[in-house]
Design goal:
This protein has 1 helix and 6 strands, in the order βββββαβ. 6% of the residues lie in helices and 30% in strands.
């Protein structure tokens, strides 16, 4: 399953309690149990710039195209993570744009 995101999503906070998209000046909460199929992505797909999460497995629910403009990623308080290799594709997708990476209390 993929998490549905609009092209205006700039900052995304993924947590065990839900997903918060920040679009321009408003915030809305989206259930982390979405059933929407987001398999067909276009050029106006979301280009997220910042992601904060406490569960790296949530990153796998986003399409790889969403990470192409990612400049900042923070992963914290994820006691279950053993290795970031499980989200290797995410790091490959943002390898040319990522400027800031913080991993703490994992």
């Amino acid at each position: 399953r993929s998490i549905p995101l609009g092209p205006a999503v700039d900052t995304l906070m993924l947590s065990n309690s839900g997903i918060v998209e920040k679009e321009e000046e408003d915030e809305k909460v989206v259930s982390s149990r979405s059933n929407n199929d987001c398999g067909n992505w276009r050029s106006d797909d979301p280009k997220i710039k910042e992601i904060t999460t406490n569960n790296v497995r949530f990153l796998k629910s986003l399409p790889m195209v969403a990470f192409q403009s990612l400049t900042k990623m923070e992963i914290s308080k994820n006691k279950m993570v053993r290795s970031l290799s499980e989200v290797e594709g995410v790091f490959q997708a943002c390898s040319s744009s990522l400027r800031f990476l913080r991993v703490e209390r994992c």
